[in-house]
Amino acid sequence: MDSAALLDLLGNENRRRILRLLARKPCYVTEISEYLGVSPKAVIDHLRKLEEAGIVESRTDDQRRKYFHISRNLRLEVNVSPYEFGTKSAYPASRGFDITTWRYLTLDVQLDDAEEGTRELASELRELEQLENELSMAQRWVQGRITEVLDELTDDVDADGDSRLYADVLLALADGPKLVDDIAADAEAPPEMVEQVLADLSENGLVERVDDGWTLGD
Amino acid sequence: MDSAALLDLLGNENRRRILRLLARKPCYVTEISEYLGVSPKAVIDHLRKLEEAGIVESRTDDQRRKYFHISRNLRLEVNVSPYEFGTKSAYPASRGFDITTWRYLTLDVQLDDAEEGTRELASELRELEQLENELSMAQRWVQGRITEVLDELTDDVDADGDSRLYADVLLALADGPKLVDDIAADAEAPPEMVEQVLADLSENGLVERVDDGWTLGD
Questions:
Q1: Which chain A residues are within 8 Å of B141, Cβ to Cβ?
Q2: Average pLDDT in the A40-53 region?
Q3: CATH number for the segment(s) A3-70
């Protein structure tokens, strides 16, 4: 689902409390209402929004009581930095996901799941939770380093306004010479604006004209 | 800062649009107000909340115009699954962070930052962005696998209600025998509730009593 819609949903404390409760066990409306100290009407309204977003589902038991539970895995990431406000929401990658094709990253986890007993499952769970922590630290490290690199890049440029666009143009040229239109497409900016940026960058010697486009300066 | 406070702030579309704008360049109130089509009064109110949270700062230029910019790096992660509603907010790890101590993860990135030219910085930026994507995929994979392991663990248990607590108790025993109070502390649940869970689990042969505590069954 859309990150914006997800943030709108999660921006409400009572909806977060409902999700925290449902993550522990399936519940019916009266239970949630009593636990939260919120009217059943308000709980029903929150549940309806969560259901419409596909986060929550209900099922009815033998006593015709309707239980709500969280229906799916999803993950939201928000990065805020002087150069970025990025939101990303994603469903977990499928099990068949080929981690051997990753270029920068090696995961040293036992993926053998034949004959798993409780002991093996519990150890695997512990390893996965540690791995999750490490990945999160790695992401924080990468985010910090990206900010440092952008700081260094934009220091060279001496641009007032939109320094991120200068960095995006340099980034577009990182894998070789390109035409203005291709740079503009990569940097998600109008070609005229990119022409101006390239002119500024070439004054500082950071880019150079080549036959049919631009390249990074030496 | 607190994840809940951050979600409350980000749960507003206009505040997200302000952050997206400030991530491209520092702006003054009138600029933001015109861009968003929102009254200066409302913009000032949003900026005040963002400033109080330490996300945004202002500085005044030679013409006494007050520019706002994003003041720091931060990162928010939300995991939603049938077993978890977790939010985590964090500042980026410091540069000196020792990635060689990670046990499960190897990052193969050039960390050499002597004599960096524009070309090297632009390539590094591209690598970092790819790495960021891979880490994000890795986390989605881990999250999916954690759900699978919890599915398998709780299938064995046949618990109604709070199946996550059963898994947390098994998880607490993954690294060896423990006393009830220590298990309760790990699982963040009252000792009496944990005693009941241990009794249920021992009926299924999943845990066993030992001298002064409990251990996983064979």
A1: 92-93, 97, 99
A2: 97
A3: 1.10.10.10
